[in-house]
């Protein structure tokens, strides 16, 4: 039976790597699939992993209708057994509903990959709908770590290494370097996310403390 699976994890936890491995394994066994993404750091219509793999993908836009697109492909005689959907947090709730319908009515396996929450710890609308509708939610097993060594569970947005809590929900970007002047991201444990303590601010604080000791 086909499934809608949501693979979630913080930024930099290996989601895109797993997306590309999943596609490879299914393709190697003769199954036909399509890769979709939205707003990959490497540019439009790409899926890129920090391990170095990068492949062409179909870019999801506001106008993408998964149900219409896959129905048309099938009507044209194309086999579509599965979809790999990266950066799924950026999909709309309606697009997630279309994916669920493809599972139920066309027996297409959907593997969706994305972060659940934004830099303010609020759910992305696409991720919220995936959590509501998925047959299964798999949390990535490779642990990403906060600067303190604890498991990282939250994504922080930084400017000059300092955590910010105001701004647009969507700003494409990468993790580190934490000293970068522009917007970057850093994964933190909840305790340090709540305290707004990034690697840089922790380093500054301990330098100040040793100055006064
Ligand atoms: N030089 C490296 N050597 C080994 N593993 C690496 C290296 N660079 C990145 N990685 C691994 O790749 C992971 C990020 O993979 P990626 O698929 O880009 O993450 P995501 O899509 O979740 O943001 C890191 O957490 C780390 O495990
Ligand atoms: C927390 C957060 C992240 N983003 C963006 C930054 C990246 O472009 C992607 C996540 O990609 P990854 O492959 O999981 O590293 O999401 C954002 O737009 N808003 C946020 O709050």
Automatic annotation (TrEMBL):
Transmembrane segments: none annotated. Keywords: ATP-binding, Cytoplasm, DNA synthesis, Kinase, Nucleotide-binding, Transferase. It holds the Pfam family TK. GO terms for molecular function: thymidine kinase activity. ATP binds at residues 9-16, 86-89. It is found in: Cytoplasm. Belongs to the thymidine kinase family. Homotetramer. PANTHER family: THYMIDINE KINASE, THYMIDINE KINASE, CYTOSOLIC. This is Thymidine kinase. It comes from Promicromonospora iranensis. The lineage of its organism: Bacteria, Bacillati, Actinomycetota, Actinomycetes, Micrococcales.
